Amino acid sequence: MTSTAEQVDRLAAWENRESILYRLLPYVGLAVGMLLTAVAPTPAGFSVLPDPVLAALAAAWIAWFVNLHPAWVKRRKLMGIYYIGLIGLAGLLVLDSPWYAFFAWVGFVHAFVALHGRWRFVGVAATGVLVGTGQSGGLPSSLGHWLLWSVLVLFNAGLAGVVSWFGTVTERQNANRKLLVEELAETNRRLAETMRENEGLHAQLLTQAREAGVTDERQRMAREIHDTLAQGLTGIITQLEAAGQARDRRADWQRHVDTAVALARESLTEARRSVRAVRPEALEAARLPEALAELARRWSTINEVRADVNVTGDAHPLHPEVEVTLLRAAQEALANVARHAEASRVGLTLSYMGDVVTLDVRDDGVGFPVTDVPAVRRADGGYGLTVMRQRVARVGGELAVESEPGGGTAVSASVPALAGGAR
């Protein structure tokens, strides 16, 4: 059993590791920028001073404010001056050599340390401009370059803004949890004075309840982030890569960029709804069969793969959690088809069978050997079937996967047909 003191010590150790990380990252970025500028020079840009001199000034600026005076982090005005100087030096370095975008990226991290409230998002936006300028190869010089620069800036600033927003929410939650831990510790001490004979059992029950709540919330957020941000970012990256390959075809390039922007907006909307624990937008305005049909249509348009949806049985409203589970399962299955299957056709079948509802997703792709432990996290970092199994199990359902190399894949989610109220 972990005591409150041990939890506080672990939190302090974690915060100490974070402190070391944000103190060292700027120097790593400077070193990478100087090395790449030396071995792979870019066309000469705007330069006030030689980049080694600017890099030395930036290193001294960070060392003075961050490393030599760590207590200054609590002085908001002083740290605001520090951040302005950091962004200014990073901007001069990026204008001199786009490789210094590796250093400018540190502005995302230091915005959390040096700035507070809405000023964090201002810092994130400024850093997004610098990083986008570096990624696009310097200041825009043509219409195409301006468009590429705009997409990169919006992407970097938007993604970092979402992460910053999540970070702000998490920071508040951590503060509330820390306060709750302290209050619980005081309550436990008082209870221990009058109930010494039950001290061990009481402390164990409180710890288990707290850890269960934290674990459940983490799992929920992990599933929601996987189903919204992760899938959305994968689609955005795919569309931007396709846009890069279609630079000579104006219509195709614009279509891919427009699709990427639409995916980014949808992902941001779904992420906000996930934080508020609100059901997906697709189920707010339509029933489950219509939501699946719209999902398949949009997925087919983006991935250029035929997707058919069939509904059997008497379709009726289900419990909101059941409908969300089936919709998310369909999203994950289609995302896996797009990433791995190389299929030419996908079929989704929603079957209402009395007290059970089943969603089958079949493709004619390359397939894969089904292992005995399918719930293990994939080596590429994705959760895949783990998230689907967790969601289906939470509503008392089962997930089955059938596949073999060259024989396509079939994913079947069966859940209880719990009735839901009229919309």
Spatial order of strands in the largest sheet:
1-2-3-5-4
Determine the N-to-C terminus distance: 46 Å
Q: How many helices does DSSP assign?
A: 13
Contiguous runs where pLDDT drops below 50 for at least 5 residues:
372-382
Largest sheet: 5 strands, mixed
Tell me the overall shape.
flat
The chain-level structural class is: alpha+beta
Tell me the total number of β-strands: 5
Question: What is the H/E order?
Answer: HHHHHHHHHHHEHEEHEE
> Rg to the nearest angstrom?
26 Å
| Helix content range | 55-70%
Mean pLDDT equals: 75
Beta fraction of the residues? 5-15%
Structural account:
By secondary structure, this protein is α+β, with helices and mostly antiparallel strands. The protein has three domains: 4-166, no CATH class; 195-275; 287-416, Histidine kinase-like ATPase, C-terminal domain (Heat Shock Protein 90). Helices cover 66% and strands 9% of the residues. The protein is built from 13 helices and five strands. It has a five-stranded mixed beta sheet, with helices on one face. Strand 1 (306-312), helix 12 and strand 2 (345-353) form a beta-alpha-beta unit. The model is unreliable at 372-382 (pLDDT under 50).
